[in-house]
Amino acid sequence: QVQLVESGGALVQPGGSLRLSCAASGVIFSRYQMSWYRQAPGKQREWVATIASGGSTNYVNSVKGRFTISRDNAKNTVFLQMNSLKPEDTAVYYCNARSTYGSATYWGQGTQVTVSS
């Protein structure tokens, strides 16, 4: 049974930082491309960042220079370090795992990030 469990969401002031974690189980983690998405109220889910199984990364333009995605294959965990947070970063953040060997895709349940003073 595959599970992705996000944690680390919180209420933070503008300019603050948060570190999200996503722990995976039931998969060979090193064979999966891992991504973060987010969905703000009334908006469609948006891709934020991806880290490939080999470690290369990509980001949506709006978070470049502020967010960093990383992975620890030994702990089956992917992270999203978010700095210089803005109110427009407020959303539910979701972890996504996509197999590099097929079409299997899995989602976590989401963690709420609220940026407000």
Features:
11 strands; 0% helix; 7-stranded mixed β-sheet; 117 residues; mainly beta; 4-stranded antiparallel β-sheet; globular
Percent range for β-strand residues:
over 45%
Shape label: globular
SSE ordering: EEEEEEEEEEE
Tell how many strands the DSSP assignment holds. Answer: 11
- Rounded to an integer in angstroms, the radius of gyration calculated over CA atoms is 14 Å
How many helices? The count is 0
Which bin fits the share of residues in helices? under 10%
The mean pLDDT is: 96
Main structural class: mainly beta
Largest sheet geometry: 7 strands, mixed
Query: Uncertain spans, ≥5 residues at pLDDT below 50?
Result: none
Amino- and carboxy-terminal Cα gap: 40 Å
Structural features, described:
The protein is mostly beta strands and about 120 residues long. It contains no helices and 11 strands.
